[in-house]
Write a structure and sequence with these properties.
The chain is α/β, with parallel strands linked by helices. The protein contains 13 helices and 13 strands.
Length: about 350
């Protein structure tokens, strides 16, 4: 039995009270579903700027009416300190996912990114401290590594930020460290590496690459690769991220707290390889995809060329053990992506 499996058993036997910010979003709704399936009590905070009510409806269907009764939703914005104070009352653990999470969006609107990601996070930390929250786990980002080219990327070595989004996440890490030192608030930051999975929005100008490409393939639209396709990412299925959040929130080792951890697989997948993984899985139900070729556009400003996480620290101090590879994650998530496009699931290869 893994450490995470033991933790799930322990949580079921002794439920805690959790706050998930950004609860109607992609990662937030997956955290909500997992917590409710473990019979936890959950409050969610979301202003629906990038989250959706239908994500919450899908969670309700997945967990059933009895478990759904353990959930309370507060419609609100982390930029509102009073809402943060309301949401953190009586909370044991905060899982902070609310953010403007996009490099291109931050380049288009750096002020909104700062207000949502920096001011909102400072509000949440202050409210959590005032209300005696036991620990705040927050979503950071691999974009923090910026122009540092060393691989794999280790937590202590970062480069210059290449976008306002990356900068906002770096400021979050600094704020968490200051609150730990000045106020004794326990925090853990998780640097996510290209998360994908069910309920990730395939639409919009800032959609992530995996749902965006699946949607394009199913709609017979061009698949665009920025650069020559050799750009690589450490894609990480959302179940691995859920595991890391729960482990970080409940870690009993004092050395595990007030730290930053990479959350990923520790591997690399090029965009060209990702294209082939998706095309092969969708081709059985869409034979025309067998001849599909991507279209190459110039490299996108603010992006990094390669990312690969070192996950040794999370393994040692949190007991983190990823359960899904990229291929396994795609196999798990494909039915949801197809349903989002109104398609029947394709046979998996």
């Amino acid at each position: 039995m893994t450490y995470y499996q033991k933790l799930c058993r322990r949580l079921k036997a002794s439920p805690a009270t959790w706050l998930v910010t950004g609860v109607a979003g992609f990662i937030g709704s997956n955290l909500l579903e997992s917590l409710l399936l473990l019979d936890q009590n959950v409050t969610g905070l979301d202003n629906l700027s990038t989250g959706f009510k239908h994500n919450l409806a899908q969670v309700r269907t997945a967990v059933g009416a009895r478990r759904w009764a353990r959930f309370t939703w507060i419609k609100g914005d982390v930029r509102d300190l009073s809402r943060c104070r309301q949401a953190t009352r009586g909370i044991d653990f905060v899982l902070h996912q609310a953010a403007m999470a996009s490099v291109p969006r931050s380049l288009a609107n750096p002020i909104l990114t700062h207000e949502s990601n920096v001011t909102g996070f400072a509000n949440l930390l202050w409210a959590a401290h005032q209300n005696g929250v036991r620990r705040v786990v927050f979503a950071s980002s691999s974009s923090i590594y910026g122009d540092d080219r060393s691989l794999p990327q280790t937590e202590p070595v970062i480069g210059r930020c290449l976008s306002p989004y990356a900068l906002s996440k770096r400021v979050n890490e600094l704020y968490a460290d200051v609150f730990a030192r000045c106020f004794g608030l326990q925090t853990v930051g998780l640097r996510y590496f290209n998360v994908f999975g069910p309920r990730q929005d395939p639409n919009g100008a800032y959609a992530a690459v995996i749902p965006k490409w699946i949607s394009a393939m199913l709609r017979d639209e061009p698949v665009v690769i920025n650069g020559d396709g050799s750009t690589s990412r450490d894609f990480c299925y959302v179940a691995n991220v859920v595991q890391a959040n729960l482990l970080a929130a409940t870690a009993r080792n004092p050395r595990a707290v007030n730290q930053i951890y990479n959350v990923a697989l520790g591997g690399q997948t090029t965009l060209n390889a990702l294209f082939e993984l998706l095309r092969r899985r969708l081709a059985p139900s869409c034979p025309r995809l067998r001849a599909l070729k991507p279209i190459y556009h110039p490299f996108r400003q603010g992006d990094i060329l390669h990312s690969q996480a070192a996950i040794n620290l999370a393994r040692r101090r949190l007991g983190y053990q990823p359960t899904h590879s990229v291929a396994q994650g795609l196999d798990q998530a494909l039915a949801w992506y197809l349903a989002a496009e109104g398609r029947a699931p394709a046979p998996l290869l």
